[in-house]
Amino acid sequence: ANMISMFAHDMRSSLTGIHGLALRLLNKSAGMEEERKIEYLRIINKEAAKLESLVDDFLEFSRLETGRLKLNFDSISLEKELLELFEAYRAKTAQTAIRMELQIEEALPIIEADANRLRRVFTNLLDNALKFSKGQGVITISAKEVNHGVVVKIMDEGIGIDPAELPFIFDLFHRGCGSEKREGYGIGLATVKAIVEGHGGRVYVASTLGKGSTFTIVLPRKIKRKEGE
Ligand code: ADP
Questions:
Q1: In angstroms, rounded to a whole number, what is the distance separating the alpha carbons of residues 91 and 158?
Q2: φ, ψ at 50 (rounded to 5°)
Q3: Residue nearest to atom 3 of ligand 1 (CA)
């Protein structure tokens, strides 16, 4: 399907929902129970957050593509970032049959990275892992130090990816079969790749259809700066 019309269609249905509920709150709130008002506001909030994150994805990607996104490098503790993400996703999956695992054997080195963008990389991968798990299984985050940097893996036991599709999944707007019924626009992995490469790193995928997928991110400890930077 045409991506722009799909995007517009989804944007519109979220906006229509928000609009409708806002109108109802404006016109009928007089006799409305407090609980119902809060319920409406909660839905409005959720839909608005969804829209915001979608638009952010697009903006971020286009900034990366056109080189307008400047990464803000700083010394960061990857371990702290991963621990926080792990806790967040553990809370998120607490009520489900999905189990989160974190494997960090030895202390990770401090690396030079843009913490916010890197978080985006991991949340995109973890959201996919959740989205393409069949509501169960283990999602593992592992990290270790290597020669000149770190390797982080996000593994899931979800639907897996068709080998024929693997070469394309990092392309903008590429969506695999099996993703039709799931939300998304195929921006997530393109963003992951752009951010990781902006760090001088690489991203790889390995997957077995029906068994699960592993995304591997290799990040250098220090950024190689170009002349004059
Ligand atoms: P989206 O998730 O919005 O479709 P992405 O760019 O994040 O877009 O992913 C592109 C495609 O790659 C997905 O549509 C899906 O087919 C495939 N994919 C990504 N992550 C996984 C995963 N963990 N398991 C199975 N398929 C995946």
A1: 19
A2: -65, -45
A3: 184
Task: Indicate the DSSP class of residue 183.
Answer: -
Q: Which atom of ligand 1 is least distant from the CA of 176?
A: 16
pTM over 0.70: yes
- Indicate the range of 3-7, 54-58, 122-126, 134-138 predicted with least confidence: 3-7
Which of 175, 183, 196 to probe ligand 1 with, by most ligand atoms within 8 A of CB? 175
Q: What Å distances lie between residue 227 and 194, 219, 223, 224, CA to CA?
A: 21, 21, 12, 10
**Chain segment 173-212, per-residue pLDDT in tens:** 777 766 666 667 788 898 899 899 989 999 999 999 999 9
Task: Strands of the chain (E only): list them.
Answer: 74-77, 97-104, 110-113, 136-146, 149-156, 202-208, 212-220
State what percent of residues in the chain have pLDDT above 70.
93
Distance CA 130, CA 124 (A): 10
* Residues recorded for the chain: 229
**How much is the pLDDT for 55?**
84
The ligand 1 site (C-beta within 6 Å) comprises: 128-129, 132, 156, 158-161, 169, 174-176, 178-179, 184-190, 213
CA dihedral over 59, 181, 2, 164, signed as positive or negative: positive
Task: Give Cα 207 distance to the centre of its chain.
Answer: 18
Question: Which residues are bridge partners to 97 per DSSP?
Answer: 136
Cα of 66 to ligand 1 centre, how many Å?
Answer: 23
Token reading at 191: 């963003």
